[in-house]
Specification:
Elements (H helix, E strand, L loop, with lengths): L10 H10 L3 H28 L3 H10 L11 H18 L6 H6 L2 H25 L3 H12 L3 H8 L6 H32 L3 H11 L3 H11 L1 H16 L1 H16 L11 H14 L5 H24 L3 H5 L4 H23 L3
Helix pairs in contact: 2-3, 2-4, 2-15, 3-15, 4-14, 4-15, 6-7, 6-17, 7-8, 7-9, 7-17, 8-9, 9-11, 9-17, 10-11, 10-12, 10-17, 11-12
Membrane topology: Multi-pass membrane protein
Keywords: Cell membrane, Membrane, Transmembrane, Transmembrane helix
Pfam families: Cons_hypoth698
Length: about 350
């Protein structure tokens, strides 16, 4: 039996809801769940800072251990607040990391390569999902995560998909998969660069155009040289900028499909408007460097809290029930984008 998705709100309703969560009554109902997610996020941050490793992945696994709290009526409102409102807030603040100058700096050919890689990888995700008999939404989610910016893209795309338990479970599995693959790529891809004897610029385009998460891109790039690290970061941020049109396209796709079920979805999600405004403000140098650093830290904190909350809402059994097909989807999309970028660099003579 197909699980019904929850009704979606208009952007005006979402805006009012975002403001209403700060009312005293809402704070009283949310503080328990928010506290739980904060403790999980702090523990994940401590382990990541002290011993290394991906912060978001730790937050997810620690959250899974507290799944029993998802049935607690006192904690559930705050957990929902972290998994929905803070998730959208964190994605919106990601825009403060990007400027139009960074995108223009990489040149026309690398920009076209990034566009091709993003679009074709999402299409690859849809095709693989169809072949494996999985829902189209899973192909778009996993393809978008691999094509754009890993866990952050998975969370952003999931925010405009129908809110079902299956989608939440697949989102968490995608976060685990892209984080693990991105960490492996950070180690393997620099070795591949040396084997293929790529120049520093070509290496930066390859690393920035293929590795899923921003932190791993920077780490892999600077393992080779400062120039490679700089190019890789700029190319990667160009992929992050693709988050806006991709999420809008996914939102429109499901908005059209859901009209038959008399549900309403916003034409442009509010958090994407925030993302675009933050990107515009950063491009116009309206955000001081100190404030920009604070916004980046706040964005990361919101996403860690959201991942912790999503972990609490999901069980190991639910993740295991998804089987091997989602893993194959992620691996296939990762191999596709890496092969495409390498072939394009060879064709362009880089």
């Amino acid at each position: 039996m197909k699980e019904k998705s929850l009704p979606s709100w208009t952007w005006q309703q979402r805006s009012l809801a975002l403001l209403s969560v700060w009312r005293p009554a809402a704070l009283r109902s949310n503080w328990r769940g928010v506290t739980i997610c904060s403790v999980i996020a702090l523990a994940a941050t401590f382990v990541s800072t002290t011993y290394g490793g991906p912060q978001l992945l730790y937050a997810l696994f620690f959250g899974l251990a507290f799944h029993f709290l998802s049935q607690d009526a006192l904690c559930l409102p705050g957990i929902q607040f972290c998994s929905q409102t803070l998730l959208r807030t964190g994605v919106a603040l990601l825009g403060a990391r990007i400027t139009f100058d960074q995108i223009a700096h990489i040149g026309v050919l690398p920009l076209l390569l990034v566009l091709l890689a993003v679009v074709s990888t999402i299409a690859c995700g849809g095709l693989v999902a169809h072949v494996l008999g999985r829902p189209r939404s899973e192909g778009l989610l996993s393809g978008g995560a691999v094509a754009i910016c890993g866990a952050s893209a998975a969370l952003a795309i999931s925010a405009v998909l129908p809110r079902t338990r299956e989608n939440e479970q697949f989102t968490l599995l995608t976060v685990v998969g892209v984080t693990a693959l991105s960490t492996a790529a950070m180690i393997v891809y620099p070795l591949l660069v040396h084997v293929l004897a790529l120049g520093h610029t070509a290496a930066g385009i390859f690393l920035g155009g293929t590795i899923h998460d921003v932190a791993q891109v920077v780490g892999a790039g600077y393992l080779i040289s400062p120039h490679t690290g700089e190019i890789a970061a700029i190319v990667k941020l160009t992929r992050v900028a693709m988050l806006v049109p991709v999420v809008i396209a996914v939102s429109l796709l499901f908005r059209t499909r859901m009209q038959a079920e008399a549900t309403r979805m916003p034409l442009v999600p509010v958090f994407l408007v925030g993302f675009a405004l933050m990107m515009l403000a950063n491009s116009l140098h309206l955000i001081p460097p100190a404030v920009d650093e604070g916004l980046n830290a706040l964005s990361r904190a919101c996403l860690v809290l959201a991942i912790a909350a999503l972990g609490v809402k999901t069980s190991f059994q639910a993740l295991a029930s998804l089987g091997w097909k989602p893993v194959l989807m992620l691996v296939s999309e990762t191999v596709w984008i890496a092969a495409l970028v390498l072939l394009a660099l060879a064709w362009m003579g880089w």
